[in-house]
Amino acid sequence: MSDELKRASAMAALEEVRSGMRLGIGTGSTAEFFVRALAEKVAGGLDIIGVPTSERTAALARELGVPLTTLDETPELDLTVDGADELDARLQLIKGGGAALLREKIVAAASRRMVVIADDSKLVETLGRFPLPIEVMPFGLEATRRAVVKVADALSLKGEVVLRMAADGSPLVTDGGHYILDAHWGRLPDASGLADRLAAIPGVVEHGLFIGLAKAAYVAGPSGVRQIAV
Ligand code: 5RP
């Protein structure tokens, strides 16, 4: 997705931000445009407080002077703005390409409203083109992976479930100290049913299916930004 489209969707979401708001601040390259634009507004006098969804976002926000708090200090948020790897017309999402899905979901769930910023290449009819990230405990990794594969078998989903690796060749470790399995299952016709089954596996900390969390999306394309709302 081009930087112009990322910026356009981020700017559209920024229109929802008002002084006094408690914000959840997403992770990823699109969310980064939001953080930069937000920081400019803050420098101009906008009075907000933000909860970052990753160490990466926290570092950028701090560097740019965006005031931050924690969910423990501010457990209820007004608005979360975050990117997504994939979304459908019902605003079901796949997230976790940036390995931040656990904090992203906790923050989104603590928010009165979550809005997604994305370009139109991420809008799909049925989720699943993007491999589904599943955050798991390092303890019992292989047993958890097998349980995940069993769920896939029960739902006739075929494809590899692979451990995400870091650049140095070791397993990628999330901000929460967990690993990520990427499930290459293709189309997920019953994302909600799959979400329930994955959540029930001991060892699965969280999965990247965000169902019923996003209330709107700002989807940028060549002819402008359109809002999808549910
Ligand atoms: C991180 C995420 C991101 O929101 C998602 O990966 C989109 O990132 P980008 O805006 O860079 O495409 O879920 O865990």
From TrEMBL:
UniProt-listed GO biological process terms: pentose-phosphate shunt, non-oxidative branch
Enzyme class: isomerase
Catalytic activity from the UniProt record: aldehydo-D-ribose 5-phosphate = D-ribulose 5-phosphate
SUPFAM superfamilies documented for this protein: D-ribose-5-phosphate isomerase (RpiA), lid domain (SSF75445), NagB/RpiA/CoA transferase-like (SSF100950)
Keyword tags: Isomerase
Residues the record lists as binding substrate: 27-30, 82-85, 95-98, 122
Key word ATP-binding present: no
InterPro entries the record matches: NagB/RpiA_transferase-like, Ribose-5P_isomerase, Ribose5P_isomerase_typA_subgr, Ribose5P_isomerase_type_A
Residue positions of the active site: 104
Any one GO molecular function term: ribose-5-phosphate isomerase activity
E.C. designation(s): 5.3.1.6
Superkingdom as given in the UniProt entry: Bacteria
Pfam families with a match to the protein in the record: Rib_5-P_isom_A (PF06026)
Annotated metabolic or biological route of this protein: Carbohydrate degradation; pentose phosphate pathway; D-ribose 5-phosphate from D-ribulose 5-phosphate (non-oxidative stage): step 1/1
HAMAP family: Rib_5P_isom_A
Function: Catalyzes the reversible conversion of ribose-5-phosphate to ribulose 5-phosphate.
NCBIfam families: PRK00702.1, rpiA
Family: Belongs to the ribose 5-phosphate isomerase family.
Complex formation: Homodimer.
PANTHER family referenced in this protein's UniProt entry, alphabetically: RIBOSE-5-PHOSPHATE ISOMERASE 3, CHLOROPLASTIC-RELATED (PTHR43748:SF3)
Protein's UniProt name: Ribose-5-phosphate isomerase A
Organism the protein comes from: Breoghania corrubedonensis
